């Protein structure tokens, strides 16, 4: 649809930015923090580990001051479960509690709205040793952790996100470093874990509404519109399969409390439907999100399955389709360019995605990640001219405005990432931030913060509430 007049961004739009605890904080074993699965996972050769990252734990005051200078209205960050409960449950760690109290207070003092992700990939290792998400006890540990956070920080935190990219942990847990499955039917084990996470999320949403009646909570999956590789009906069917398995399985459960029928049929085909205990579906049906948060980097394109091993590509990650035998096969989209890491760039697909989610669920949307990973170059005078990042973000922001004009309710945009941090599996040379951190893959240097060109651009854009 071509619009003659564009609607403005809403008055109190959350122009924000995002990070996650394990990718930015460092201090992986400081002040009583317990290990998470990320701390224990093998490091991808040639890339740094997650022990120090951007050392935000020790730099948070300076960082929040920079976020305020950037003009952020909101900051989306995650709480490291093992700072609060080093063993996942049981004894609380007062120093970990204090860190987030300080961070939240600092944000509030600078008029930045904290948006808290409860769990961003870093499951406590102590829980993993007892079976992780395969063990139903982890659902209760998560519910208890959530209730604790609501009690501790709910007087200042109004916006909560349950689980970051549960769909990517299920589909690309290998790349992210979170996958651990066992048993005779690993697919069943995986989707049993998925069921437990969905149940845990439902419990979190219910507890949030009970404990904090004025707070708002929602899921935070990675959602991409899925294109068929051609107009062949078989390709269109494959796209529908992929969309149900990648996107709607997660949001249908979060919003409607039911399993998506196509995803369920896929699980039946693999003898992998999860065991559902009495009462589970009632809990899922009675838990309601207030909004949908989602991360968007690109769209995906798929073709009809060939019905054999050729459906499965050799590698994949959050934005690169692996393929499922008999269901769909990954394809590339000849109409799109790619970033340095092979991720397709599709701003118009962002509008498609926003429209599709809103039309399906009619809940307010907030974008909790979007951004460009790139190899930034520091010039001799110290400047970083990341025009490619500015172009990427501006093109995506333009599409949000078009989606708003289409009638989609969007209340915030939190690009990835506020500050440079360590990527999930491609090290810290893959940079995303508005703020540069002076370190490289293996040399920690002085961690000095400096403003990239995109910092000044985003600051000016926020000041005009996105108007040109
Ligand atoms: C999302 C994750 O999948 O994408 C983030 O929520 C991640 O944790 C981001 O960092 C970018 O991906 P990557 O693999 O480049 O770090």
Automatic annotation (TrEMBL):
Its EC number is 3.2.1.86. The keyword Membrane does not apply. One of its GO terms (cellular component) is cytosol. It comes from Tolumonas osonensis. The active site is at residue 369. This is 6-phospho-beta-glucosidase. The keyword tRNA processing does not apply. GO terms for molecular function: 6-phospho-beta-glucosidase activity. Belongs to the glycosyl hydrolase 1 family. GO terms for biological process: carbohydrate catabolic process. It comes from the Bacteria. Keywords: Glycosidase, Hydrolase. It is an enzyme of class 3 (hydrolase). It holds the Pfam family Glyco_hydro_1.
């Amino acid at each position: 649809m071509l619009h003659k007049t564009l609607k403005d961004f809403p008055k109190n739009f959350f122009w924000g930015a995002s990070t996650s605890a394990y990718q930015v904080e460092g201090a992986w074993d400081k002040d009583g923090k317990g290990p998470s699965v990320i701390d224990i996972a093998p490091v991808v050769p040639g890339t740094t580990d997650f022990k120090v990252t951007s050392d935000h734990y020790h730099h948070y005051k300076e960082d929040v001051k920079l976020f305020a200078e950037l003009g952020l209205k909101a900051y989306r960050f995650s709480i490291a479960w093992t700072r609060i409960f080093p063993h996942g449950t049981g004894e609380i760690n007062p120093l970990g509690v204090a860190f987030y109290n300080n961070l939240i207070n600092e944000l509030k003092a600078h008029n930045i709205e904290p948006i808290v992700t409860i769990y961003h990939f870093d499951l406590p290792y102590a829980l993993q040793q007892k079976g992780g998400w395969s063990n139903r006890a982890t659902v209760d540990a998560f519910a208890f952790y959530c209730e604790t956070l609501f009690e501790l920080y709910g007087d200042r935190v109004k916006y909560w996100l349950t689980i970051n990219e549960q769909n990517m942990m299920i589909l690309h847990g290998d790349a992210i470093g979170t996958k651990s499955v066992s048993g005779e039917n690993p697919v069943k084990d995986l989707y049993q874990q998925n069921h437990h996470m969905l149940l845990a999320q439902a419990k979190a949403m219910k507890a949030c509404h009970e404990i904090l009646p004025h707070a708002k909570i929602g899921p935070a999956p990675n959602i991409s519109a899925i294109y068929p590789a051609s107009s062949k009906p078989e390709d269109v069917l494959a796209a529908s399969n992929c969309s149900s398995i990648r996107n709607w399985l997660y949001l249908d459960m979060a919003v409607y409390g039911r399993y998506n029928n196509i995803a369920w049929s896929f699980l039946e085909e693999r003898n992998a439907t999860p065991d559902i205990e009495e009462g589970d579906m009632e809990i899922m049906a009675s838990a309601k999100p207030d909004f949908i948060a989602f991360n968007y980097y690109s769209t995906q394109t798929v073709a009809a399955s060939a019905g054999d091993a050729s459906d499965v590509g050799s590698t994949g990650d959050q934005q690169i389709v692996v393929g499922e035998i008999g269901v769909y096969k990954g394809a590339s989209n000849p109409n799109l360019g790619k970033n340095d890491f092979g991720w397709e760039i599709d701003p118009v697909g962002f509008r498609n995605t926003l429209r599709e989610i809103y039309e399906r669920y009619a809940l307010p949307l907030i974008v909790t990640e979007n951004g460009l990973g790139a190899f930034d170059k520091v010039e001799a005078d110290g400047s970083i001219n990341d025009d490619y990042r500015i172009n990427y973000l501006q093109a995506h922001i333009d599409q949000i405005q078009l989606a708003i004009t289409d009638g989609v309710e969007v209340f915030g945009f939190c690009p990835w990432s506020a500050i440079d941090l360590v990527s999930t599996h491609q090290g810290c040379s893959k940079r995303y931030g508005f703020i540069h951190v002076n370190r490289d893959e293996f040399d920690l240097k002085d961690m000095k913060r400096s403003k990239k060109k995109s910092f000044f651009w985003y600051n000016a854009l926020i000041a005009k509430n996105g108007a040109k």
